[in-house]
Design a protein that fits this description.
14% strand; alpha+beta; Arc Repressor Mutant, subunit A; 3-stranded antiparallel sheet; 52% helix; 178 residues; single chain; 9 helices; two-stranded antiparallel ribbon
Length: 178
Amino acid sequence: MKKDKVKWVVESLLFVHPHPLTLDNIYKILENEVERKVIREVLEGLLAEYGEMERSFQLVEVSGGYQFRTKTEYAPWIHKLRKVRPIKLSQPALETLAIVAYRQPIVRSEIEQIRGVDSGWVLHSLLEKGIIKILGRKEVPGRPLVYGTTRRFLEIFGLRDLSGLPTLQELESLKGER
């Protein structure tokens, strides 16, 4: 398949898919007709091309994949059209989520030690929303559940991977700006 055709196929796949597509997803869809290297080059080209365009949407690398997203400045009109309610997280849920994100893999007792309060209902709520998941059990007495974030977490917060989380220094500097 010619590179231009690969570009158009990849672009159309990204356009219609509701979630980020990984390089592996695209490779499998193309049924091994195209080398991974070519797909990667096409994706990098599309990222650059859409980055230069002055459009209401952009191609972003998020949650280990690629996805078209509208720019945040157009959110008020999109919400009117789609009647989408953003995920609302309480202060305890945000605290717990931050602890899980920065300290994963982590068990409930460690979360509760940091927060100073019971966190069972908050963990349950985050699990239901698909923002965190159970990674397994820790090999200690009682074999407690181990928690970590999901790909949905990365998607919601627009992160490519966990390295995109702000550092503690960056968070402290934000506090000082208030």
